[in-house]
């Protein structure tokens, strides 16, 4: 009768359970892996031989058949290595089977070391939903795995330690997770983080950053080369509050799908892909179905520097996830769904040469070049941006003057935190103004009569779309929250309208 050990895969945030069955038969010694095993899984045969030999364990001199069920689920991860090794140990009588409710996760090296794997949080969460509570995991994944509450972890460094644990001669260290608490977060920003006081001038752009951070709005910065657009965009991440425990779990889980490094994300991530990146890299997908940059920026900032230089197909692919806050990727190998709740910050020059309207140089672009540059960004895509701000040229004499001081960044962060606290109190959760549905806007947003009149007049004059109209209201609500106002006044609407698109791009 074959022995069975439980493993788990994580093609997406859901995870998939795998039964690892082992049968020994009296044939020529070999290892056969069946059950839609991909290349990395098929190569586990050699890793198993090397790990058993290096660990001083007996690899049965028989035909070893390993079946990975269900057979219709493609197996493309090396995280099943340790489960296959445990199944062989149990089938050959060297150890008993793990206790019921135990899942075995880990990749083996030729010297018997258990390597960390990708997606360990997704794996544990998927198994926990199905009633599994104990997990033998690589020691290198312990930090991330401890984020998952109400499970018992058995971190292992090598195959020999797992053998001793199962045979009862020397147990692995037991780690019981509690409420999924994250490590304490310092109030100080990470070293190297761009801060507002590092940027000379740019008062309008800084104000736009503050509004965007307070309400979670998308932002576009437009200006000539060298005006500090990229620095301004990078400073936005420093204005955001630390992630909550739930958000830390979400973000770390997503990043663990692409890397085996045991890193905790306690602060909002900042992703800044190059404009030459592919559509799959930006939105997700690829042969192994991995999250893209927009998902890796979940709960943080997606910075697209030189926005018009990105491939048009890639930019248009952003329209749906920017609206729905998630991305669905379908390929022949399957379909996955990743969260994509991030702030988009885009930067652009006013024209191809960058000097339209500049005092430092003459624009060399003809009418055709200007039109082509403008048409790289579609109207529906631009409609999904809430704020447009200009990065002004700075007088050279101001550049080497002492900065205003760190209090500028601190004061803005405090206003952002207070505004977000008002939103949590008003909506009863983590919803931000940028997330409001139409029903929520009718329920919670209170426009003064003068504000409503001004908004309707300007919406008609500027020919705003319905989406742009509602986004303007959301921005006005954020401005009111920063001012700690219970209602939206005409001055709030006026400022929100001032950030609507009037630039060349």
Description:
- By secondary structure, this protein is of the alpha/beta class.
- The protein is built from 20 helices and 19 strands.
- Helices cover 36% and strands 17% of the residues.
- The strands form 6 sheets. Strands 12-15-18-11-19 form a 5-stranded parallel β-sheet. A 4-stranded mixed β-sheet has the order 1-2-4-3.
- Strand 16 and strand 17 form a beta hairpin.
Structural class: alpha/beta
- Cα distance, first to last residue? 69 Å
Q: What Rg do the Cα atoms give?
A: 27 Å
CATH class of the largest domain: Alpha Beta
Keywords:
505 residues; Rossmann fold; 5-stranded parallel beta sheet
Topology record:
Elements: E1 3-9, E2 16-25, E3 30-34, H1 39-42, H2 44-55, E4 63-69, H3 81-91, E5 102-104, E6 107-108, E7 114-115, H4 120-129, E8 134-138, H5 142-145, E9 152-156, H6 159-167, E10 175-176, H7 203-215, E11 219-222, H8 229-235, H9 245-256, E12 270-271, H10 279-283, E13 284-285, E14 290-291, H11 293-296, E15 301-304, H12 312-316, H13 319-324, E16 326-331, E17 334-339, E18 343-348, H14 367-374, H15 379-382, E19 387-390, H16 407-427, H17 438-444, H18 449-461, H19 466-482, H20 490-498
Parallel strand pairs: 3-4, 5-8, 8-9, 11-18, 11-19, 12-15, 15-18
Antiparallel strand pairs: 1-2, 2-4, 6-7, 9-10, 13-14, 16-17
Helix pairs in contact: 7-16, 7-19, 18-20, 19-20
